[in-house]
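Section: Multi-chain targets

For targets with more than one molecule, the full set of components is provided together so that the structure can be written out for the assembly as a whole rather than chain by chain. Components appear in the order listed by the source. The example entry contains four components.
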Amino acid sequence: MSEYPPPQRGRTDAGRHLTGGDGCGYHRVRLLVSTSQPPKSIPQIRSSTEFARYVGLARTTVSRVLNGQPGLKKKTIDRVQQAIQETGFVPNAYALHLKGKRTATVGICMETLFTPPITRKLALLQRRLRDDNFSSLIEVYESGGARNVVRHFLSMRVDAIAFIGHFDEEQFAGHLAELRANATPHVVIDHLGIKGANTVALDRVKGMEFVMNHLLDLGHRTFGLLGFAGTVRSTRDRVRGIRQALAGRGLDFDQCTFSWDHLHPRNNDFEFGGLLAKSFVVHGRPATALVALNDEIAAGAIRGLQEQGVRVPADVSVTGFNNQDLCLMTTPELTSVDQRMEETVSAAADLILSQIGKPLRARPVVRMVEPALVVRDSTAAAQAR
Amino acid sequence: MSEYPPPQRGRTDAGRHLTGGDGCGYHRVRLLVSTSQPPKSIPQIRSSTEFARYVGLARTTVSRVLNGQPGLKKKTIDRVQQAIQETGFVPNAYALHLKGKRTATVGICMETLFTPPITRKLALLQRRLRDDNFSSLIEVYESGGARNVVRHFLSMRVDAIAFIGHFDEEQFAGHLAELRANATPHVVIDHLGIKGANTVALDRVKGMEFVMNHLLDLGHRTFGLLGFAGTVRSTRDRVRGIRQALAGRGLDFDQCTFSWDHLHPRNNDFEFGGLLAKSFVVHGRPATALVALNDEIAAGAIRGLQEQGVRVPADVSVTGFNNQDLCLMTTPELTSVDQRMEETVSAAADLILSQIGKPLRARPVVRMVEPALVVRDSTAAAQAR
DNA sequence: CGGATATTCGGACACTTGTCCGAATCGTAT
DNA sequence: ATACGATTCGGACAAGTGTCCGAATATCCG
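Its structure, encoded as tokens over all components, is:
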């Protein structure tokens, strides 16, 4: 799994429901039927042949009008335009592709659509692709149906495929082989380490180094790590960043860091952060700074600390990761690491778009995007206790 | 525009950047090239003809294998399967459609991909469509290119189109005419009031009635309205809900409600909420409850109040709308209105899926989804001052 | 009205696939 | 070796579109 746990249905339903909400179907749904004008007597146009018949011109003539060829009377062109207005005829893109035209479609495969960072990347990528006149076919990757996703994209003759999130590395080898066999370019966004895959990913090692150096500069020497127990590559990279930063100052990882991850379930990250903060307090606050895996955990930790009467950042500093909008909503505002998603997505788009229509590169390209530390008010100089 | 202002690039970049981040290109991006195995000598297979040649069978025989027809030797079937493994051959979906097969694709057109409620609806809709073996082609609607979106969907012969968000009502009439002419079913999610459109929308009137009745039951009689100045239908509906609830208790809207919307720009809703709360305090706190248009504004208002030394809910109650995850992250947790998106999306999916392959309904269908009030800790009995 | 030019017509082909069908080939039993 | 049933072959067609091209028609000028 990724940095985010799977979505929980009804996670925000924790309050008391006063009205509605028994969650058993549509009986809660009112049905209204409004009046409307009767349908006009325009025939169903399903092909250029039928359309030409409707206009009263030869199919070839209509085709020439639609494709802007010269040698046509203005009157003829107007007649066709008029008929398009009337019938809403649109040529079949599938037939065009069969004639050799590119589909101008990019497949986007995501781990999930339920986490903010991934949907934000989707949004950025879609915008970029649209600007380049490509449309986006989306699929969510599920461990079982993964192969079907790729095969479906290939059957749709997408010009390229982008994968966003974290995927099964073993299955991925098979996908890459299929993509290579079909000369379809690809890029993997934010899953570093897939062998043979073109990859654009945030340098999470460096991100955590930034965080740690910032805290070390503020005089912190003991750190509580919140949520770093995972074995996913992106988590391991962050731990490595922490290790390296500490090593850079001659400090020992095992002596400087503490973790209470094993004490609590990780369902809702915000809640998880709160529980971790409480364990931290209960265990005598053995650190001056809490370093969280992501913003949600950090925000939960801030809340948890405050509920225990611990001041942030006067008593304890807290850091997040991802620099989501949430960072501005905590009190104090949260120091975090910005993913520079625009950079990531832009580089990924460049990577696939530059390969479309050309022979595939023999060697995979890996691009690392450097994150940026955003310092806000949740971090301050370490206080002697 | 909708309830949400347009996305602001770099909205979360408000802190001090210590590292990286001059925002001028890719020089920040390191490039690594990893080694890989040389490409194998498997030919590019572009059609079933080429594939059959590769296998050494007749194209028709291969086709029969691929489509599971009887009367084939096991050895032949195995040979084909083997060749698929080797070449990654996938039949062209475009040719299949030309043979009359449905595209099994639904177009999803969104106002934007940058707001949580809309992307969440996208996620839910995509999951439902996928469960029904449809794939999702997405486009973002921009006032200028709107017509192209619909025409593109039609040229892609999508089986249906779903619109999510708020759209230009005048342009929409044209879209509906085109959809009708092409016998393509549609549904509009959450933009109530488009003439002739099949619509599924939250009953925002009722939502605000729930909020107001809840507050009225708690003894509140004066209300600060945060962010209700917009003229969009969804905003007007909410104001109507407030009016109706007050009228139901014999109270006068103009005497009971206050607004400071005109005093502040609405860029970032969270910030906007904070500014509104401060105006509320500066103007002598003429209300006992603040009713916000959405959760972000409410969260900002809570923060703003607290910064001014006003306690929530002891001194002032605050309510949100949408019941996002954010509601659990404020202190105190935020009373809000749940959109019941699962209901909405499910009803919308039913509406379009039930129409695919059948003649279009003559009259548009409008379904209202009843929201649910979720009471948390940001609302309490009105305090005499 | 004759002739020249400008348009339009309509048949043909290609793109890829699934299916039909008669002909050819394989495998096996006699 | 022959015959028969089981497979496979390969030509043909259809789907919708763009393009080519010779033939047909419309338009214009004198």
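Residues 48-91 of chain B form a domain with the 434 Repressor (Amino-terminal Domain) fold (CATH 1.10.260.40).
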